[in-house]
Amino acid sequence: MDTLLVSLLPLIIGSAIVPVHIIIIILLLKNPRLPVLKATAYLVGMTALRLLQGLVFGLILTDSVAATTEEGSGKSPIVLTLLLVLGVLLLISAFRKWRKEDDPDDPPPKWLTMIDSLTPLKAFGMGFGLALIAPKLWVFTLSAVGVISEARLGQPTSTVAFLLFVLLAQSLMLLLILVRGILPKHSENLLDQISVWLTRYNRQIIITVSLVFGLLFLYQGASGLLSLRG
Questions:
Q1: DSSP single-letter state for residue 72
Q2: Which of 79, 85, 113, 162 is the right S-S partner for 146, CB 3.0 to 4.6 Å?
Q3: How many separate helices (H) and strands (E) can be counted in the chain?
Q4: What is the pLDDT of residue 37?
Q5: Exposed, middle or buried by CB within 10 Å (0-12, 13-18, 19+), for 226?
Q6: DSSP 8-state code for residue 115
Q7: Other Cβ atoms closer than 10 A to 32
Q8: If we measure between CA atoms, which residue out of 117, 85, 69 comes closest to residue 214?
Q9: How confident is the model at residue 148, as a pLDDT?
Q10: Cα–Cα distance measured from residue 137 to residue 139, given in angstroms and rounded to the nearest whole number
């Protein structure tokens, strides 16, 4: 399990520090009506989509990964391909942000204007919907499913590992919700500061994170696939 967590760590970090979702959580937490409930509903919506992805693709990838690694001890071509695709997507994201172009993972502008008027149910739908249309989040989650399937830990342990991945991947948003719920008055200034900082440096954060992890996943995927051919 320790080795698996090390393999999942880049996917966890890359998925956890996507600024746009943290900003949305902060905006929901600054709402005067039911802030914690709405932010929690948004996070539960994202979690529901990821759990659905894990259920559906976990069943598919487990057999596929097992079949492709039966004769060797290296990584599965499926996992390596997912890492390669994720690396390419992240590098494209870095390039688009550098060119100041729109990111496909950014929410539609209309969705952001609706935040103040969201009900908890609509916040749930927004969290589910944004996770559904975000290409990089899909590949992060599918790559994690592939890495877990490749470890062949058995169904119970694999389920625990995936739940741990989802929890850690969303830990920053969960932490903000907990802070707002436990320290409602003292957290307002903190949320304002984080929101201002993330908004100001959103472009630089995305470029840096996408470039670093993009090169890492591209190297892992490409070098692994080349070694399989050799």
A1: -
A2: 79
A3: 10, 0
A4: 94
A5: exposed
A6: G
A7: 6
A8: 85
A9: 87
A10: 5
Q: Which long-range contacts (CB under 8 A, 24 or more apart) does 207-212 make?
A: 207/94, 207/97, 207/98, 209/14, 209/17, 209/90, 210/90, 210/91, 210/93, 210/94, 210/97, 211/90, 211/91, 211/94
Beta strand segments in 21-150, E: none
The structure tokens listed for 168 are: 């850690």
Tokens describing residue 46 = 């994202």
Query: Rounded to an integer, what distance in angstroms lies between the CA atom of residue 66 and that of residue 72?
Result: 10
Rounded CA separation 77/57 (Å):
16
Q: What is the pLDDT of residue 109?
A: 65
Helices 35-68 and 120-133, axial angle in degrees (round to 10): 30
Instruction: Indicate the residue type of 14.
Output: G
**Maximum alpha-carbon separation in the chain:** 61
> What is the CB neighbour count within 10 angstroms for residue 134?
22
| Residue ranges for the chain with pLDDT beneath 70 | 59-75, 103-112, 230
The answer for residues whose C-beta is within 8 angstroms of residue 33's C-beta and 6 or more apart is none
d(CA 22, CA 109): 16
Specify the amino acid at residue 116. D
Residue 194: C-alpha distances to residues 19, 80, 177, 199 (Å): 10, 35, 13, 8
CB 125, CB 71: distance < 8 Å? no
